[in-house]
Write a structure and sequence with these properties.
The protein is α+β, with helices and mostly antiparallel strands. It folds into three domains: 147 residues, no CATH class; 91 residues, Thrombin, subunit H, CATH 2.40.10.220; 180 residues. Helices cover 32% and strands 27% of the residues. The chain has an eight-stranded antiparallel β-sheet with strand order 7-14-13-8-12-11-10-9. It has a six-stranded antiparallel β-barrel with strand order 1-2-3-6-5-4. A two-stranded antiparallel ribbon has the order 15-16. Helix 5 packs parallel to helix 11 and helix 9 crosses helix 10. The longest helix has 24 residues.
Amino acid sequence: MNPNDFPSAILSPYSSIAPNSSVPIYEGPVLIGPPAESIAASGTVVFRWLPTPKIVFEFLTSDFNKYHSGEEVECRISSDFDPDVLHISSENMSFNPEGSQRKLSGEVAGHFYQGCEGPVSRIIFHVPNFLKTFGKQAVWFKDGQPVFSTGRMTLDSDKWNITIDDISDRSKAFAELKSSRGYAITHLGEVRRIDGSEFQFRDIEALLEDLGLFLSWSRGNWTAPFLHIGFQSDGKEQWKRWQAPLVDHWRVVNHWFPDHDTSNIQVAWESFRDRLNDPVWREVLLRALNWYLVCNRFEGGAEGSIIMAQAALEMLSWNRFVAEKGSTARAFKDLAASERLRLPLNEASLPMGIPSILSALVNAAEPKRFDWEDGPHATTEIRNMLVHPTPVKLSKLQRLSNDEIYQGYMLSMWYLEVTLLFYLRYEGIYYNRCKFDIHYGDTEKVPWS
């Protein structure tokens, strides 16, 4: 292959940092406190992954009177940006030949800027703990030899072009992530204006927040762009913006996103943003996606996740049929819980029967057991046993096996996942989580496509 036929891969000095390794951000003088009451200090600022991502600091000062443990105070290393905010968690004395000093340590609350504020022509960002994807090709060079990347994704949005590449040594990074279950940069991204004009970070802040939610929804676990680096048109670095990302440690979770074939990602991104920009849907989708991610990480176990997943489904159903289509609140409330679930599932062309692969749940639905009519009836009945602990319902709950409850969770999550895909107007392929023996690339078309 001729490397000149392929675009250059996005590069960053931070992409080669080993998983879970801390990153020194700054060392030098700072001013702590507002201008009229500031004290001089010096020390270090470090981005740290473990135990959870955060930016920490240690500063030495000769001032013993101002700013103490438990306080939040502003800090400046440059007059070009708004001040950073420090949360001081500890202070102690430091003795050296030059005299005693006070050491302040703690966490940077929010962001930490370096450089000079100003317009830029492109911004590079870093994405931790995303999926190992296969898409378009890009090329980078190692020791003068071309190396081809196969993970490029392109997401155009309005007047913005977003490109995302996997890092150069992704195989090693993913192997270490799976072993350590920690954190690592797995992808690099770049934002430019389609017309090539310059812009400020605030112009794309909301766009990047939506991108973080889209990537999290695709991954099935929290991730977000962070460490933004702005570049001038001549390629010189203008500024860096550090902030601890909203990201969960590496874990294997179900995800609908077809990581083996990212050809649909542009359309998926466009419809996702279109729906988030709809005032009828934005707040409901933000809440439903958050609940989906909590359930997908199994944080409440099978029982808690069944309850939350069905709350999300009922909220989506209400928003569609009452807020958007104009059904009366009374008519909706008069429906049985299973009927409220059937409304969006019927719209999404989902079969109502319990999938045969959920054999334990199929058995529980038999007339001689619980006599459940279909999948929505089964999942809502299990939910009711959990949230309405009457003697009769508790007795029924005790007759359910762990496998039956877990398969109720799987079915509830499939319903929620497919309903979200439908209301986000996705038309491509996806991983069906109700296939227990899913292999890589074993995807299917969404039911309504």
